[in-house]
Amino acid sequence: MINVGIVGASGYTGVELARLLCNCPDVKLTVATSRQYKGKKLAEVYPNLAGLVDIVCEDLKTDELVGRADLFFTAVPHQTAMAIVPDLLKAGKKVVDLSADFRLHDAEVYEKWYQKHTAQEFLAEAVYGLPELHREKIADTQLVANPGCYPTSVILGLAPLLQNGAIENESIIVDSKSGTSGAGRAAQTGTLFCEVTEGFKAYKVAAHRHTPEMEQEISKLCQKQVVISFTPHLLPMSRGILSTIYAELSKPFSDSEVHGLYKDFYGDEHFVRLCEPGSFPATQFVRGSNYCDIGFKVDDRTGRIVILSAIDNLVKGAAGQAVQNMNIMCNLPETSGLLTVPLFP
Amino acid sequence: MINVGIVGASGYTGVELARLLCNCPDVKLTVATSRQYKGKKLAEVYPNLAGLVDIVCEDLKTDELVGRADLFFTAVPHQTAMAIVPDLLKAGKKVVDLSADFRLHDAEVYEKWYQKHTAQEFLAEAVYGLPELHREKIADTQLVANPGCYPTSVILGLAPLLQNGAIENESIIVDSKSGTSGAGRAAQTGTLFCEVTEGFKAYKVAAHRHTPEMEQEISKLCQKQVVISFTPHLLPMSRGILSTIYAELSKPFSDSEVHGLYKDFYGDEHFVRLCEPGSFPATQFVRGSNYCDIGFKVDDRTGRIVILSAIDNLVKGAAGQAVQNMNIMCNLPETSGLLTVPLFP
Amino acid sequence: MINVGIVGASGYTGVELARLLCNCPDVKLTVATSRQYKGKKLAEVYPNLAGLVDIVCEDLKTDELVGRADLFFTAVPHQTAMAIVPDLLKAGKKVVDLSADFRLHDAEVYEKWYQKHTAQEFLAEAVYGLPELHREKIADTQLVANPGCYPTSVILGLAPLLQNGAIENESIIVDSKSGTSGAGRAAQTGTLFCEVTEGFKAYKVAAHRHTPEMEQEISKLCQKQVVISFTPHLLPMSRGILSTIYAELSKPFSDSEVHGLYKDFYGDEHFVRLCEPGSFPATQFVRGSNYCDIGFKVDDRTGRIVILSAIDNLVKGAAGQAVQNMNIMCNLPETSGLLTVPLFP
Amino acid sequence: MINVGIVGASGYTGVELARLLCNCPDVKLTVATSRQYKGKKLAEVYPNLAGLVDIVCEDLKTDELVGRADLFFTAVPHQTAMAIVPDLLKAGKKVVDLSADFRLHDAEVYEKWYQKHTAQEFLAEAVYGLPELHREKIADTQLVANPGCYPTSVILGLAPLLQNGAIENESIIVDSKSGTSGAGRAAQTGTLFCEVTEGFKAYKVAAHRHTPEMEQEISKLCQKQVVISFTPHLLPMSRGILSTIYAELSKPFSDSEVHGLYKDFYGDEHFVRLCEPGSFPATQFVRGSNYCDIGFKVDDRTGRIVILSAIDNLVKGAAGQAVQNMNIMCNLPETSGLLTVPLFP
Fold it and tell me: Which chain D positions have a beta carbon within 8 Å of B181's beta carbon?
């Protein structure tokens, strides 16, 4: 039995971890921290967990935490993470960090998009936790930087094409749409029900912090430094990301040739489902699950390909992928706890 | 391994059965019928099932069906069910019928609210499949009439009070609100997105067919023939029923005395969760699960009690309860396949 | 030209007033206060007003306000209103107060449900601003207490029956459901999109502050002190209230007899639309308008009547009724600025 | 007083025309056709119109129609329109056709994307009814082809850049998202509430029929034949389109230079509202109105510009623009009937 802790358990990502861990037979949730709900049962904060999760939220310093578990999920904002993670690592703990703090290998890039980085010495050790690309390194590391939600959908959608040189690297345009749970549970006017329902808008146009994360992984895949266009949008729904990705094909391809590239690349990957040519993914068909559904269309008129990639932002885009990384790091079956069927309707 | 079949697999209830059966280790889905999608994979009709459910929809006559499974879920409209169920029973199969055809013990009442009943000889055998009330009879029968969604929420909400004579039986008023999935997947103008979203209305006021079903079970519990007021409403959401139930208390009660009645009545029932006095259930906290969450408030000013009861209409209100009944009928652990954590947010 | 001011312009009620006043040819918005958005254009806070409303939010003391308009809408929380309204009245201004502070004639009742009342001397003068009941008094007063959203829907739904002695006064049960805009624009976890969407719950069961307001007007109509049961619920939508009201009929009535009572009572009232017997109102058909749509059903089985009453909580339930009151107080056509067609779909 | 008729009054576009015409003082709705609801009041089909629109739906042949009005809105599917419009024109009537049948000047292009064109002789006369581009021609024609919803948002978003040669014409990528009302009121599984809510997907990827319409107008503006990439998506909401448009800048521009191009181009256009640099449009702020709100962002990193354009698909994207065209054709004030304030929240 592996003991795990959640640092920052009362946000949407934290509670989603608690939900998924209920399904993990080899794992026990032994500690959950929340400053705001200190002393309260997590199931009082999130009554969906009533009768299923007994844990009480605590407000602990890192040195009080370390003895309580073997592996920690740090589900706290960037900058907060880098203040906690080093001590957990030094205490010999495994860490899956869900913040942005250890995703970028290059501290300069981090500092350009975020702020000063105060734990740069751990960047080399951190593995970008996208199992479909970096499974072996994840198995060997003490620190996994769990990918951002948008990058997960985008990198999985592009990887087979990039690796095969099928697209012009400088031509990538990413138009992503996310459910509102991605904005977290902080009380803000902008994410009130009445502000979001029956409405749609872009935000942080050409300025979102997930951009360098995508560029890092895309550049690795095509072995060349590239920049991309990225526009995130806010959907009037709770869960789900759909990324629509445009790129120029490097030469003419048929839909079935491209389908072949994807099949070869993903083979038996459990959490990537390819749509048959002519059909496209929809966020409602991955809801609550760790799947990434991918479809595409070659457009002969323009010489471009359009790729559609759908995930549940709280699962494959956050907590589910974190559990998948935990499984790999702890030598458990990779799909353990992650076999729930998507909930539709 | 028990082989089961779903008759009418392509409606929302049918596909929800398919989803839940994925989680049942002792059960195998061996046949699924759908006239409309004959020859198509169920996972093509409902892509959430891709990679998880392999079954192909068939259009079969009852005599072709019987050899294919040990137990059948009949998820077809009333009147259609009574044409199929008798032959399944005669062939020695167990049946969980999700239609209304075998819920009412009195054929006259049935014919008043529905239409002519052509299989009255099976009414005596049919057990009303609310396990919390009729578990033992369910274990012994070949035919379970799976309760309606509204009645499930209402009867579970009222049973402890009725059995203890705590309320005036003639004073019961039920105001229920259901998500749109209760209306099924048939293409109808009234359930189009644009007709339902950002709107709310009552329908079939004082005329809904679930009324006699509630009256039958309520009358049994209070050992007296009673009529109730029942108003269903359509919510701009997909899943969930909340019933708000009003009744006059037979004598003054405190909130904690009433809470005691509920605790005594439900004891260790796995799928009934009682809210602490002062807190109330919400449909979003039972989503995707087989729970019925119940809360209440004694109103000293009026001498009435208000009971709130929340279920997922497709799970405890249909497919989940059907699986629970299957488990009891087949001597499997009652919670098998039904332990998924409610999905929130 | 009448100059009007909005005190508290940046809440949903305030901005709805600004929207409606755009349609009033005889009225000019000359001042709008907002502490939070001081110095900002109201149209920057609410971009729907861009190009239509030029006013800049100010943070003014009452003595700075009084010279700026002839009539004031006070769209501030209760307790805040009673600190402002007296000075406006003393300066000779007309006031439509949208808070609860002047709705209850009896200060004791107010203090039981709210808190201490510090402007009791104005209670006698305040007129409860439901024009369909109190039009003449509204025309003659300096201070109108604009009704609450729930009470508006409920009192209009019950008035014809109460005045005709058609129902048992002690039997009234009100089950109301409101869109989330009723909770206002303050940043709160409970009204975040993800907490509300695809969910439904009751709140303040048997304890909501609109209860005494309904009881006051109901008691006046039936000339007897009555208590009622009232349960509000939160709908996963933005605008609209539907109240489902139950009462025992004092004697048998047919649907058409009851329809006659409503027709006689409401006659040519512009903002009350009666549904034909057999059809019922829906909130989506009053959206954005000042209408109250009313339907009902006599239930012979139980001897009860069920009344359904639908309004847009921000219009007939708040800002629209306030404009209607302003029109009456200022001797303008009562429908001026209020003739917009409900927006559907 | 101008008498107008709506052919196809019971679809969402038809009833939106009826709503807007209520606000037109110089226009009278004298006839409304609907095969499905023949003999029924339009206000029974759409109860939002109760008390406001008295007209009864009729099922009329074209020769019975012509005497009933001076101008007709044909709100029927493509192919149906081309069977009706010629006879209306021959009878001397003005026509605003809301179908696709007369939008494309080149019959070959039409036949490639739609089907055979049987009224090609009227293509030369038809004016593409985007007033901001073709106001003078609209004033002079008998037949206006009312633009598609997607093209309206896209062409208005691109026009200032295209006319000024500011972007590379071959680089245009359009990613559009539409509310579900765009799919019309036909009962279809795909637009049921449960299929759409809490979900998001692309459809007709690189194959939508609005593509050639955009290409026609874009090519005119840049005086060169261009092809574009276009992906439409279905939003879980009722009204609104947001188009996110990507293009390579022909040379470096600052945000304020681009803003200048838009201001010069649109000048005093009433129905185009420009967002200040740094802010972006949202569909909820144009709801129910005829506005097109436009924002953009120059991305120095990639050399691209991202343009955001928001409309209400039923108003500026259909019925509102049709009324605007009617006003121009009939020499009425262009904004007549179209000054309603967007409804938010």
Answer: 194
